[in-house]
Specification:
This protein is α+β, with helices and mostly antiparallel strands. About 20% of the residues lie in helices and about 20% in strands. It has two domains: about 300 residues, 3-Layer(aba) Sandwich (Lysozyme-like), CATH 3.40.80; about 130 residues, Jelly Rolls (Sandwich), CATH 2.60.120. It comes from Streptomyces lasiicapitis.
Length: about 500
């Protein structure tokens, strides 16, 4: 797989049609980086992770014999957290069973009901055989679940019954009525399963509790009006205070950025000033003019099919701790397709909490799951706000870890929430359409079209096979999975049509 690495002091120019001059840091940063850029003390960085080993739960006699094989934690007080997940030692092992948690709101005596944590999360990962996948740091993990500000937790992990045990219980079906064998992600050859006992849980189960930390808002932009300085507009659209509009870089603020933060911001410097909290929106005419200029300014060139550039909250805007991720950026050759996901973190968040949700997922992906960075290239919240995901530049072909087997020459978009049973808000579907109209347009892709990708290996397509996929696909098109949830998946046709209209097709 072609991978282009960009060191923090050598920032790559754009890939493909977004080629531009190499991005440069302000003089204060490039002339004496050690003097101008400082790293905060480790204990001053926002956010934290509590990792608690799980043990046998043998006291629940009402649960029958299987309860003796359950693992978990009894109710306990913990430091405040907002997101929860479970990890284990071997990423090649699946957790076949259920994970349930209940939590207590911070400063209250009120416990939630039991909540299900999505256990099938291995399909969101780097492709097999890549440096990220083979780093030795990757762990098996469930999807993370957003529970809000909490300081108490209880968890139980129950293994799936084996075929013989299910037969004794009077059913030959697996969990949720799924057949015992088949081609889906829950399938396992019958000869590979224990016949007379409950399936074993993975070794080294640990509960991960993530506190996103506070993200102090930067000073309000004096050029912005009062509405822009507010946390959110009446329609729910997030407004990040600070340098949210095009203009000159605040060199004093830039000098206070860490080297990693400066590098993550500088790869967007042809779109927004260094240290900007958002890439500002452009009209369709402005977007087309920018693209034609990037292609050489040939007046005879055909008018491109590209949607207006949407406003994108940068990693600085949502408070990414750039010290967590690997320093290098990795790229592929182009962006031929977009895979739409749901984050499976639940729907109990407000749009003003979206940055906290993102900081929690980011910390979980890196510290708990062992990935190099946030897995998705972009995120869209329930109000349609669009966020920069994995670092490397929003206009570039950044290599993500979102669709196992198809991360090369694609991008991943996570809609924050769970959409198997809940319908995605219209604003979120519109956000996907606007983002794909612009980003796919940069690389000449038709949102209503099809393309070919080479599989890096997965449960639907063997490694090296050439696969025809829709340019805007759901995760389940490349991997047998519930993602992005049936309700969101059913809206992808709407997103394709709207995206093509935004491109002027």
């Amino acid at each position: 797989m072609p991978t282009i690495v960009c060191m923090r002091r050598f920032l790559a120019s754009s890939i493909g049609v977004t080629c531009a001059a190499a991005l440069a840091l302000p003089l204060a940063l490039t002339s004496s980086p050690t003097a101008a850029v400082t790293r905060p003390a480790a204990d001053s960085l926002p956010g934290s992770t509590q990792s608690l080993p799980l043990g046998p739960l043998g006291g629940d006699r009402a649960g029958g014999p299987s309860a003796l094989r359950d693992q978990g934690l009894a109710r306990r007080d913990v430091r405040p957290f907002s997101l929860v997940g479970v990890v284990w030692d071997d990423p090649a092992v699946e957790l076949r069973g259920s994970v349930q948690v209940r939590t207590r709101g911070t400063g209250t005596a009120t416990w939630s009901s039991w909540q299900e944590v999505e256990t099938h999360n291995h399909e969101h990962a780097a492709d097999p055989g890549t440096p990220e996948s083979d780093s030795g740091r990757v762990r098996g993990s469930t999807a993370p679940l957003w529970v809000g500000d909490s300081d108490g937790v209880e968890v139980r992990v129950r293994p799936e019954a084996g075929p013989a045990e299910r037969a004794r219980a009077g059913t030959g079906a697996g969990e949720q009525g799924r057949p015992e064998s088949g081609s889906g992600e829950h399938a396992q050859p019958e000869h590979a399963r224990p016949q007379d006992q409950t399936l074993a849980l993975p070794a080294g189960l640990r509960l991960e509790l993530v506190d996103p930390g506070e993200h102090p808002a930067p000073p309000a932009d004096p050029r912005a009006d009062t509405a822009q300085g507010a946390p959110a507009k009446a329609d729910g659209a997030l407004q990040v205070p600070g340098r949210d509009q095009p203009g000159q870089t605040d060199t004093a603020a830039a000098a206070r950025m860490t080297a990693e933060a400066a590098a993550a911001s500088a790869v967007n410097a042809d779109l927004a000033p260094l240290g900007a909290d958002a890439v500002p929106a452009l009209s369709k005419a402005e977007t087309e003019a920018d693209l034609i200029a990037a292609q050489g300014g040939d007046a005879a060139r055909a008018k491109p099919y590209i949607g207006p550039r949407p406003r994108i909250v940068t990693r600085r805007g949502w408070g990414a701790d750039e010290g967590l991720r690997e320093r290098n950026f990795a790229y592929t050759r182009t962006v031929k397709a977009a895979f739409v996901h749901h984050s499976a973190t639940g729907n109990n968040y407000s749009c003003s909490q979206s940055p906290s949700v993102l900081r929690s997922i980011y910390r979980y992906h890196v510290r708990s799951s062992g990935w190099r960075d946030f897995g998705y290239n972009f995120a869209v919240d329930k109000c349609g706000n669009i966020y920069e995901g994995r670092a490397g530049g929003v206009a570039k072909a950044v290599l993500g870890a979102h669709t196992l087997g198809f991360n090369t020459n694609s991008m991943g978009i996570a809609v924050l929430g769970s959409f198997t049973n809940a319908s995605p808000p219209k604003a979120a579907v519109t956000g996907v359409a606007k983002l794909t109209a612009w980003k796919l347009g940069l690389f000449g892709a038709n949102p209503r079209g099809a393309t070919y990708l080479t599989s890096g290996g997965g449960n639907l397509y063997k490694k090296g096979s050439t696969v025809r996929l829709k340019v805007i696909s759901g995760h389940r098109d490349g991997f047998a999975t519930e993602c992005p949830g049936r309700r969101l998946y059913s809206k992808l046709g709407t997103a394709r049509s709207a995206s093509a209209r935004y491109q002027g097709r």
